[in-house]
Design a protein that fits this description.
The structure holds two protein chains of two kinds. Chain A folds into two domains: 228 residues, D-Maltodextrin-Binding Protein, domain 2, CATH 3.40.190.10; 95 residues, 3-Layer(aba) Sandwich (D-Maltodextrin-Binding Protein, domain 2), CATH 3.40.190.10. Helices cover 47% and strands 19% of the residues of chain A. Chain A is built from 15 helices and 13 strands. Chain A starts with a helix and ends with a helix. The two termini of chain B are 21 Å apart. The chains are: A alpha/beta, B mainly alpha. The interface between A and B is medium-sized, with 33 and 28 residues.
């Protein structure tokens, strides 16, 4: 008994060393790339993919999609702002980011939008009490929302659509969560807020005397949620496979969303950390945040002629509002098609994934 | 031998060398980052920091305002209002608790509990209770520093030598005279020490609140410019906060020396 137990550790140790060596050898051959993401319907998809074991977001562990592309995706979850800082400072290879916010980091770190994940179609809204029937009533009052963000963009663009002048209105900074609470409590002077989901739905649920005066449905496809990858990361060995694996993961979860059998479970998983909204509300959330859930929808957005016009508007707004110090040079297509640009919208990676399916 | 005193000149030289070391280390870090990416703005070079400072100081073409001036006015007003309310409340409460045992019995348990709650963790509660306007900043700072300050004052009153109290009564002093002419001067230097210690936390509470609901102020600009990766603007703001905290600390120390010259010897 004793002899047996004395011998076993030696063999076990040798076995473990062998196993560890072979595993580390195989992992050493697999390039590792990181993706920073924050809780948002079309970005929580990556967290869901990890939970549902499509990928393994931990470093050195591979899920089936990572094995398929021979690349290790390391997920880094953080609040949205720290994600932008992480990406801008080169601490991650890719980031979940809007078409508006990607302009700034691209000035210092050339970036490629490889995947449009969703667009706001009502998810950003101006909420006012029922006593306010038209936007002109907001003149002389403060409209609260997160300054220099998609909220302010949505507000200003809707004013333009309505033929109003931005200078006649005051947009005042407030965190969307705080603005939603203030509105729900009917705090004095908080008559109008521009927030995004889940705050839109939560506020409307809790204030029956409030309504949406306008929202992002009036500016379709202008606020685009994306995954952007640094050009330098794409140029590394395995960079292309990383981009493809990220896209493949996104569409794999979207397939579960379109399948009636797995739709509800996937929606609940997406909404688990996003908010405490129930399944019915989450169904509404994904209507207001329209997913580009198939390769066709993704390539249509990235190759459509609208995108250039939209980005011109977005860049003009960002320069005018000092969100970017200067307009980044934007290109459309693969690297040989649009060389030397700061920001590129590239559908080629989606096409590779679609062909390999 | 441990705790051996060193000459003042050596202490000064070592202090200066540590600052030079920090600046040198930062310079190397920035240079290393810019070798990796010459356009980087997240670890700005000294020239980028200088440009950021200019941006913060000069009149902004769009808003026609100087960021730094507007932010300093807003944050300064909120901080001082919060400090004044907090210190005045703590002084009143601490003195009452120290002098009157029923007040002590009534206030001690809740104050001990409240002192353990970080106000930044209770930010949402402050939004709910007092809204998101100026009162919120004042309330948050005041509630953040009041429990600790009140307990400090209370303990300082408790430490007051009883023989001095009896001597004052023997000489015919009233209760009010004992409190204000005998006990208060004893408490004052300890109050000033405590205020020096809470200035840092008060600034933390203010910046955290401004980051969430401010439309002007240091917290607002630091959050916004961090998001826009303009660290060249953020770093001068951080340096100014540090300088402000240091200046406040020094000013209070000098005030303590002026108002309570006897305490310097007592402390040493």
């Amino acid at each position: 008994m004793n002899m047996k137990t004395n011998k076993t550790p030696g063999w076990t140790l040798a076995g473990l060393i062998l196993a560890f060596t072979s595993v580390s050898d195989s992992l050493a051959a697999v390039p590792s790339f990181s993706l920073a993401w924050s809780e948002y319907p079309s970005w929580s998809v990556f967290g869901v993919a990890h939970v549902q074991k499509l990928i393994d977001g931990r470093e050195g562990r591979l899920g089936p999609i990572e094995k398929k592309w021979n690349v290790d995706i390391v997920l880094k979850e953080a609040e949205y702002d720290p994600c932008l800082t992480m990406y801008g400072s080169g601490q991650c290879d890719a980031v979940c980011i809007t078409d508006m916010d990607v302009l700034n980091p691209s000035l210092t770190r050339p970036s490629v939008v490889i995947l449009p994940t969703s667009t706001s179609f009502g998810a950003d809204a101006l909420i006012v009490p029922n006593t306010i029937k038209e936007v002109k009533q907001l003149r002389g009052r403060k409209v609260y929302g997160l300054a220099k963000s998609v909220s302010e963009y949505c507000f200003v663009r809707n004013l333009e659509v309505l033929g109003e002048q931005e200078k006649d209105y005051t947009f005042s900074n407030m965190d969307p969560g705080a603005a939603a609470v203030a509105m729900q409590q009917k705090q004095k002077e908080i008559d109008a807020i521009v927030v995004w989901n889940p705050f839109v739905l939560e506020t409307l649920n809790k204030r029956k005397d409030a309504h949406v005066l306008f929202d992002s449905t009036k500016i379709p496809n202008e606020i685009i949620d994306t995954v952007a990858v640094a050009q330098s990361s794409l140029d590394k060995p395995g960079g292309r496979e990383f981009a493809c694996a990220v896209i493949d993961t996104f569409y794999a979860v979207n397939q579960r969303l379109t399948n009636p059998k797995s739709r509800d479970d996937t929606l609940i998983a997406i909404g688990e950390k996003f908010s405490h909204l129930d399944l019915a509300s989450m169904k509404k959330v994904v209507q207001q945040t329209k997913f580009y859930g198939s390769p066709k929808e993704g390539t249509d957005i990235l190759t459509g002629s609208d995108l250039k016009q939209i980005m011109t508007k977005v860049v003009d707004f960002c320069v005018k509002h000092e969100i970017v110090s200067s307009a980044p040079k934007i290109g459309y297509g693969s690297k040989p098609e649009a060389p030397g640009v700061a920001l590129r919208f590239d559908p080629s990676y989606i096409r590779i994934v679609a062909q390999k399916k | 031998m441990i705790r051996r005193p060193i000459p003042k000149s050596l202490a000064l030289a070592l202090g200066l060398a540590s600052v030079v070391f920090l600046l040198g280390a930062y310079t190397l870090l920035a240079r290393w980052q810019h070798q990796k990416n010459p356009d980087d703005t997240t670890i700005p070079s000294w020239s980028q920091i200088r440009q950021g400072l200019v941006t913060a100081i000069e009149v902004n073409a769009r808003t026609d305002e100087r960021w730094l001036l507007e932010d300093a006015k807003a944050s300064g007003a909120r901080l001082f209002a919060g400090l004044i309310v907090g210190v005045a409340g703590a002084l009143a409460l601490g003195m009452l608790m120290g002098c009157f045992t029923p007040v002590e019995a009534w206030c001690n348990p809740p104050l001990s509990l409240l002192a353990k709650i970080p106000p930044t963790a209770a930010l949402a509660v402050f939004f709910v209770l007092v809204g998101t306007e100026g009162e919120m900043y004042v309330t948050m700072i005041a509630f953040g520093i009041l429990p600790t300050l009140a307990m400090t004052i209370f303990l300082a009153v408790k430490e007051f030598p009883e023989e001095l109290q009896f001597k004052a009564y023997t000489l015919g002093a009233s209760h009010a005279e004992v409190i204000w002419t005998i006990i208060f001067p004893h408490v004052l230097p300890k109050l000033i020490d405590a205020v020096r210690l809470v200035i840092g936390p008060a600034m933390v509470f203010l910046i955290a609140a401004e980051m969430l609901v401010g439309s002007v102020g240091f917290g607002y600009t630091i959050r916004l410019q961090s998001k826009l990766l303009n660290m060249g603007v953020v770093y001068p703001y951080l340096a100014l906060l540090a300088a402000f905290g240091f200046a406040m600390d020094y000013a209070l120390y000098q005030l303590q020396r002026k108002l309570c010259p006897w305490y310097e010897g007592h402390r040493s």
